[in-house]
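Example record used in the benchmark description.
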Amino acid sequence: MNLLFRRIILGVFLIVILLVCLSNVSNDTNQAVPTDSPLEPVAQVKTLRLKKTQIQKNLVAYGVVLPLPDKLQTVSVSFPSQIETIQVNPGQFVQTGAVLLSLKPAPTALLQWHKAQTELQAALRNEQLLHQRIRLKLATQQDLMSAQLRVDQAKVMIKNLADQGINKIKQITAKQSGIIYQVNVQQGQQLPAGAPLLQVIAKNQWVVRLGIEPEDYGHLKIDQQVMMLPVNSAKTEPVQGRIKMLSHQIDPNTRLLNVFVKPALNQTLFINDFVKARIIIESVTAWMVPRQAVLPEQAGYALFTVANDRAVKHQVHLGFENDQLVEVLADDLNEQDEVVILGNYELKPGMAITRIMEKDK
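Model output (structure tokens):
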């Protein structure tokens, strides 16, 4: 009896051990079996909502700041002269009455002065002789009148030459405040009568000459608004101006049409500076997205949106653009669509996405 009981207990124990072993083998087998479906790739993207934005259609042009021709004062003298000293430089601002340069008469001018003095002395001697001859009844009053006329003419000549400063060193002063645009002479240089010495332009009396492509002429009109920035300046606030004249002749040097813009009087530009101008054609309301949201393709351009956490691809056409944004045109785009603006280069249609959350600044 005891032997039978022991055999029964031993059999139960063996069965329990067998069941435990079979259970461990089953667990190991389940863990070792690979899954038949691989993990789906998920792209991280940044998005924004598509909405209408008002933008300005601009025509970009480049040009140079020049003085207004009718406001440019040219300084010259009416007699041959020689430059003694020059007190100003191009670009210098001068007040009314400031000395610009000093000059003295050239040898030819001094010869003219001496001739005028000699003529006056000869006319006076001739007049005295005629008085004596009249007393001797050897001349008439008509002869005396002719001699007196010669004296008067000689005196007028002397006075005119003296008023011009031909007999001394002459200082040329500014008749109005302004900026020295050009100095055309050098110290010691001899000049003929009427030769230009320098040019002065009143402050704010300049114009910007822009060059535009001939095909853009139809977009322009008189008094159209223009925003300008100097090319070589860190200034970020644009200078405002308006178109004052449109040229009807192509510049032979640039092959462009010249457009002349008058800056506002309270705006400051430097003469001969180069500027970049935006001519405002019109304002439009359109779907605008950042430039990086649009992907170039062989057949055109593509844009990705997100729907149900999946990427949706759209074929788009591009419209007007500025430095940051570009207009997108497509029939399958709608207001408030979620547009992918970052991470779109790795996207494929239908691809799962997760959004990048910006950290709080």
